[in-house]
Automatic annotation (TrEMBL):
PROSITE patterns: ABC_TM2
Entry GO MF terms: ABC-type transporter activity
Lineage, opening ranks: Bacteria, Bacillati, Actinomycetota, Actinomycetes, Micrococcales
Predominant location: membrane
Transmembrane segments: 45-72, 78-99, 120-150, 156-178, 190-208, 254-276
Protein topology in the membrane: Multi-pass membrane protein
Full protein name: Transport permease protein
Gene Ontology biological process terms from the UniProt entry: lipopolysaccharide transport; response to antibiotic
Pfam family, one: ABC2_membrane
Cellular localization per UniProt: Cell inner membrane; Cell membrane
One cellular-component annotation, GO: ATP-binding cassette (ABC) transporter complex
InterPro entries according to UniProt: ABC2_TM, ABC2_TM_bact-type, ABC_2_transport
Protein family according to the UniProt entry: Belongs to the ABC-2 integral membrane protein family.
ABC transmembrane type-2 domain span: 46-279
Length: 287
């Protein structure tokens, strides 16, 4: 049979091209992100002001309770800034990962009614988390400026580099566990455990030297291969390290392990996309 001129344009219904479809439907992605960010403070009098108040209150609590009362400033200079910088990037990861895992279930009604790139939901969850993180970064930077922050261009570049690293890593995990969560809702509970442990799996509450002094060298190398560890240290390098605390050094081989972290993050993204693509044919049925 002779093929018509438009046959090449026909595709099997519901067959997508993964993350490429998200890029081609970026106008729809922007609408979803805008809707989710507006819902966050709907009905609130102060609205987005709360996004700046919360990290400021966090800083005051850390400064007084941890830095002064528990005297942690003696072990780590500017401890409140140190911990707030680390918590900022880990909070971004936790929100993007957890919301990405729930995104398909939360949008079940839309998925069952029409076809659109399903990867859009984990990706939009990551972007919403990024939008929610920006005010906290602004607050941390403003506080650091008050304490004499004078970074180099490389140290400033470390901040967006850490954000990109976590964005890729969290999106891959969100797609992977989000696809599994459609059929097995236990995945959501498992993710909650990972999120709970994430803040302790990287040098947020403590300095990396405490880990290096307690574990064998090979285990410390594994610790540094966790993408969250170089991401947290990139934030410390950009925001906290320019304050020149006493006897402090950035994570050994920070840039080398950042490169390996990006390899890991991209691999997780590829695995997440592969599993997502394999399971998405059952999404409407299982939801």
């Amino acid at each position: 049979m002779r093929r018509g001129t438009n046959d090449a344009l026909l595709e099997e219904p519901g067959r997508g091209h993964g993350l490429r479809d998200v890029i081609s439907h970026r106008h729809l992605l922007a609408l979803i992100v805008r809707k989710e960010t507006q819902v966050r403070y709907r009905g609130s009098i102060f609205g987005w002001l709360w996004s700046y108040v919360k990290p400021l209150v966090q800083f005051l609590v850390f400064y007084i309770a941890l830095g002064v009362f528990l005297a942690l400033n003696k072990s780590i200079d500017f401890y409140a800034i140190y911990i707030l910088a680390g918590i900022t990037i880990v909070t971004f990861f936790n929100e993007a990962f957890a919301n990405g895992t729930r995104s398909l279930v939360d949008n079940a009604a839309l998925i069952k009614k029409i076809y659109l790139p399903r990867e859009m939901f984990p990706v939009s969850s990551m972007l919403v988390a990024l939008v929610n993180t920006i005010p906290q970064i602004i607050v941390v930077v403003a506080i650091a400026l008050c304490f004499g922050w004078q970074p180099t261009l490389l140290q400033i570049a470390a901040i967006p580099l850490g954000l990109v690293l976590v964005a890729v890593f969290a999106t891959g995990l969100g797609m992977l566990f989000g696809a599994i969560n459609v059929t097995f809702r236990d995945a959501q509970s498992f993710v909650e455990i990972i999120v709970m442990c994430a803040v302790w799996a990287s040098p947020v509450m403590y300095h990396w030297e405490m880990v290096a002094s307690k574990v064998p060298e090979w285990l410390f190398s594994v610790y540094r291969l966790n993408p969250l560890t170089p991401a947290v240290e990139l934030f410390h390098y950009g925001i906290w390290f320019p304050l020149h605390p006493r006897n402090a050094q950035p994570l050994p081989d920070l840039w080398a392990y950042t490169g390996w972290a990006f390899v890991t993050a991209v691999a997780v993204l590829a695995i997440g996309q592969a599993v997502f693509h394999r399971l998405e044919g059952r999404f409407a049925q299982d939801l």
